[in-house]
Specification:
single chain, alpha/beta, ten-stranded mixed β-sheet, 6 helices, 28% helix, 23% strand, globular
Amino acid sequence: MAQYFQVHPKDPQQRLIRRAVEIIRQGGLIVYPTDSGYAFACQLDNKDALERIRRIRQLGDAHNFTLVCIDLSQIATFAKINNEAFRLIKTLTPGPFTFILPATRETPRRLQHSKRKTIGIRLPNNPITMALVEELQEPLFSSTLILPGHEDAMSDPEDIRARLEKEVDLILDAGPVAYQPTTIIGFTEARPELIRQGKGTVDGLF
């Protein structure tokens, strides 16, 4: 049965953040809010939690998973960033963007796209997300809380609790968070590519 913490959306209680990170480090799978909706999260090297996400979401090998990072220097450990990518990411973050980048050798293969060897990277504009990553001191493995047969992520923490309290170890309730998909930008070709226009604005950048 999942634990359930009510967290202030703008000024998260540090004791709850510390406890959430303890659960993550102990192998737990959590549900947490981002700037684009609720998502699953676990530790980077947690194979069991990753498989739990795959099972709950019914995901195949071709899914692009995401690492939530604290800053650009942390991104550079797990993704290859050229000068253009660096400038664009610095301009757009923190914010509701997902950047698809070539993975480095530091990125576990199970987290990479099975054919393209890429990884999704995020620097969200959300106090709870950033508090978690800062306390954890490493990227947070993340996947949007979209259940099979649905196009949108779940947005109401009470509904999430009713549906998933036996599937996850912790739910961080920051109140309802409307799902707005991130804008996805790829850096696997010679030039940046707008893969999906979402919440993040890129006017004049492409």
